[in-house]
Automatic annotation (TrEMBL):
It comes from Mucilaginibacter galii. InterPro entries: Cyt-d_oxidase_su2. GO terms for cellular component: cytochrome complex; plasma membrane. Keywords: Cell membrane, Membrane, Transmembrane, Transmembrane helix. Belongs to the cytochrome ubiquinol oxidase subunit 2 family. This is Cytochrome D ubiquinol oxidase subunit II. One of its GO terms (molecular function) is oxidoreductase activity, acting on diphenols and related substances as donors, oxygen as acceptor.
Length: 341
């Protein structure tokens, strides 16, 4: 049953990265859009994420519940030593969701709309930034359980070049995912060209941020090259992501939209696979050399069995309902535009 739980955990993290990341990315590309294209970007993003934006956080909730119930030692360690970035990330999610509702559904249109808009845009950037920082901190080996000062115990374990670089790369990846997804959310030729340009820009930014991650890893003595390229799975994942990127841009040039979306999600999954495979089953790497493992640091068997059955049975209800939710809000636009595949 432990493999079932681990599979659900990995899938929840992946889906939050792909779906929630595109959700955050919609605000990110709006934040960095010019004044002439910002309103059209906002309209397309609202049409895309408006009906289903809240459902994306379900995957984060599932991941948190799995860690809390199935791997309490890992959960408590992260909650203790990374509580600052975790709190910032959760505040960002809360502020973003609140601002999204008020800026789109507030009955009174006044100057507060500008405040709501700024909160939405800045929290769209801050939230994935700290999500990436948390992920980088988990594998950086900077968490110090033997620290005797507040800064060394709760700040320097996440406030370092490698973790921040991972955070910036996460932001760039979210912007890229959103740009690719939004190409198919409009049938206006000018808007499609605009989102294609944005996708190219964020693709380039992601490459630069990726190079920054490797540079920071080298500077801090983290063997990232070995982690990703030193095994068959990691190397294959990188090659597959690169080849799919070429295919994606070819299809976009032909004005196809559905398959490029899938390929963009596939690229994100390959990135996650490459970095997680080499550490499996370890989830946290500590400064003292201790590794918190999904096998060694799990709940009692009775708890794991109950959790696995809850996930399996719950998925029978949640997954079909989620697919129907997406289908309900997308089918009319696909039929109307004669969506290419």
């Amino acid at each position: 049953m432990e493999y079932v739980i681990i599979a659900f955990l990995w899938l929840a993290i992946l889906l939050y990265l792909v779906l929630g990341g595109a959700d955050f990315g919609a605000g990110i590309i709006e934040l960095f859009s010019t004044s002439t294209t910002r309103s059209r970007t906002r309209k397309a993003a609202y049409q895309a994420i408006g009906p289903i934006w809240e459902a994306n956080h379900m995957w984060l909730i599932i991941a948190v519940v799995i860690l809390f119930v199935g791997f309490p030692v890992i959960y408590s360690t992260m909650s203790t030593y990374l509580h600052i970035p975790l709190v910032v990330m959760l505040l960002g999610i809360t502020a973003r969701g609140t601002a999204f509702v008020f800026r789109n559904y507030d009955a009174v249109v006044d100057d507060m709309q500008r405040v709501y808009n700024r909160i939405f845009l800045y929290s769209s950037f801050i939230t994935p930034l700290f999500l990436g920082i948390i992920a980088g901190s988990a594998v950086s080996g900077r968490i110090n359980p033997d620290a005797h000062t507040f800064l060394s115990a709760y700040v320097f374990d996440w406030l370092n070049w490698f973790s921040v670089a991972i955070g910036l790369f996460t932001v760039a990846l979210c912007g890229f995912l959103a740009s690719v997804y939004l190409i198919g959310e409009t049938n206006i030729d000018e808007d499609q060209r605009s989102f294609i340009r944005k996708a190219k820009i964020w693709n380039a930014i992601a490459v630069v941020c990726g190079a920054l991650v490797f540079t920071a890893a080298h500077a801090e003595g983290i063997p990232l090259f070995k982690w990703i390229l030193g095994n068959t799975v990691g190397l294959t994942s990188v090659i597959a992501a690169s080849l799919s990127l070429v295919l994606m841009w070819f299809l976009i040039s032909k004005r196809k939209t559905i398959v490029p979306r899938m390929l963009a999600g596939f690229q994100a999954s390959m990135i996650l696979l490459a970095i997680s495979w080499v550490h499996f089953p370890d989830f946290l790497i500590m400064q003292n050399g201790e590794h918190l493992s999904l096998f060694k640091h799990q709940a009692p068997n009775a708890t794991m069995n109950a959790l696995a059955w809850a996930l399996l049975i719950g998925s029978l209800f949640i997954i079909p309902a989620l697919f129907y939710l997406y289908y309900s809000f997308q089918k009319d636009r696909f039929v109307e535009k004669g969506e290419g595949r």
